[in-house]
């Protein structure tokens, strides 16, 4: 159900199609700085809605070169049931439920055979809301939509002629203060719409048009007058507070109709050309010609004046579901594309980062290889300096160690070898002693010396039977080795 206006958007062109009882109407309007321009128009009679009409629409598009943009389709008032209903609620959810009940009461058709839509016209402080309820058979919608779509066109919206007449009435000056009746005379049918304070408060179809009036005005004028009177009576019964100021006669021009209605109704009647709001008209069609003089395009002009203010959208359910699925599919496609773009961006970022890391590693490797020889040279020089430093240290001079060992030696000791390993600072002593106790005394003296640490015998003390002396081998570390 429609309960709010369509989103406003800037339009430079609009194409409208109305498939009436006998006439096919296609009009293209352009918006310019000077106002609304009727740039292209096609009017053609047809016999039935179907494949022939589809070919007629396609041929007209090719011949007139209409803009290939989504079209707005207008349903004639004759095929639509419009009722003004007062409901005891101002809550949208409650109104929605009440509308379903009203639809079942107002039509003999089953719910599966009809499509309905409504617009909330007004809401009072007493808790009542007035709605305009539109009911149409699904078969009529499907026929017209399929005919237009088969011609290769995309239907943006399916509105009704009454909304176009409302826009036309407001633009022509009616409805500004109080209420006015707009009587749009068509070829075979007419429509009476009441515009009050800029709103459509009543609409009714009259089953007689300009064809019969022009054919025999005297015979058919009374029937037309009675249709207008019954419509005004229904207006008073449905909207008691609405009092029209005058009747605006529009659409097809029937010479004596204005005077006849003025003489037989209690309201003044004035005629306004339905195309008076159009700045330019196509030169290909002479609307004053007898062939087209009975055709009214007032509703199309009104719809073109405010295409984004058309509130009713009587789109077949199947088409609406298809559009929703296409829209959802489009959104999903966009989402997937965005995800793909994000993944590609992440992959590109990762590849770029890895590439930069590899490049950085390559630069570092090149620098390392460049400085490697210099580094090795520095290491060799440092070792050489260390070696020189060690050799210059008198403490590590072998003569100093032997001199200290001499001071520590007590008893009968004979040293055969004194070995110093500079890299590990390990000192190895080998020799013989006259008594094993002399060896113990030497070990204790070395252990207490500030020069040595970790003193131990590396082998068992063995007496040489030939000489009668004890062989020994002692290892220790210089304290500097720490």
Brief summary of the model shown:
The protein is α+β, with helices and mostly antiparallel strands and 482 residues long. Helix content is 41%, strand content 28%. Helix 1 packs across helix 3 and helix 4 crosses helix 8.
**How does the helix and strand content classify structurally?**
alpha+beta
Strand order of the largest sheet: 3-2-1-4-8
The average pLDDT score comes to: 85
CATH class of the largest domain: Alpha Beta
Query: Which stretches of 5+ consecutive residues score pLDDT under 50?
Result: 1-8
Number of helical segments with 4 or more residues: 11
Give the helices and strands as they follow along the chain: EEEHEEHEEHEHEEEHHEHEHHHEEHEEE
What is the overall silhouette? rod-shaped
Q: Helicity range of the residues?
A: 40-55%
Tell me the distance between the termini: 95 Å
Account of the 3D structure:
There is one protein chain. This protein is an alpha+beta fold and 482 residues long. It has helices spanning 51-64, 92-106, 138-150, 161-171, 210-215, 217-238, 257-264, 298-305, 317-392, 398-408, 436-448; strands at residues 13-19, 23-32, 35-45, 71-75, 81-87, 114-123, 129-137, 155-160, 179-185, 190-196, 199-206, 244-251, 269-271, 413-421, 426-433, 452-457, 462-464, 469-478. The strands form four sheets. The chain has a five-stranded mixed β-sheet, sandwiched between helices. Strands 11-10-9-12-13 form a five-stranded mixed β-sheet. Strand 9 and strand 10 (190-196) form a beta hairpin. It is rod-shaped.
